[in-house]
Amino acid sequence: MDVFDELDDAALTDLCAAMTTVQRRHAATLALWRLRAPLLMLRLDPAWGLHRTVVERVFRAMILTPDEEESHRAYAEAVAEMVSTPFFTDPEEGELDNVIAEVQVEAIAELEMWNVLDELSAEEVERIIRRPREVSGWLDRGTHDSLWDHPALGAHERYLETEPGLGRGADFGYHSTRNLAAEAACHDIVLALPPAAGLLGTAAGREALALCEAFSIELVSTLAWQHNLGH
Description:
The chain is mainly α and about 230 residues long. About 65% of the residues lie in helices and about 0% in strands.
């Protein structure tokens, strides 16, 4: 699949509609995996009462073989622990005060929705897939508008020089390109997986998780940099 094919709204909508229930669940899981590292590698607000080990348990339970009773129980227990924290039971009102918290809140909210939606509809999985796109575009715009150059600017420019589809707008930058590359590769993998295969059960599934993990670590670097600049 071409990296930029799914920039078209209709193309992504059609792709999600054509997926099976299992494929939609895999695609949504991988989209959330691309937002995983900011929750595990950056400080969570202590007022949320949410420890990163709890979040890690939820992510790990998401990729267990879905048809096994043990995996259902592990996931239910992990999510029950997560939603019992003040983040969910006594949420703070008002604006978030930093870019890291804003991205973390978006990711945690999607984790909760993933649990609620036992069978993801095409519309629901499309919405989840768009979340890392939105975060990527937001970080690209902040990087582009900053008075300071990103520490990895040279590497980012070299990467963009190797990718097709430039000239789509000044806000279509490094993170958006990296996210779409990972997204497209993951969709190819998901569509080719055997129907009963989990993401951990095949080399291709593990490759998709690794691609998403690598991208999410890139988000951590830029989030920390923007936070240090006072964004």
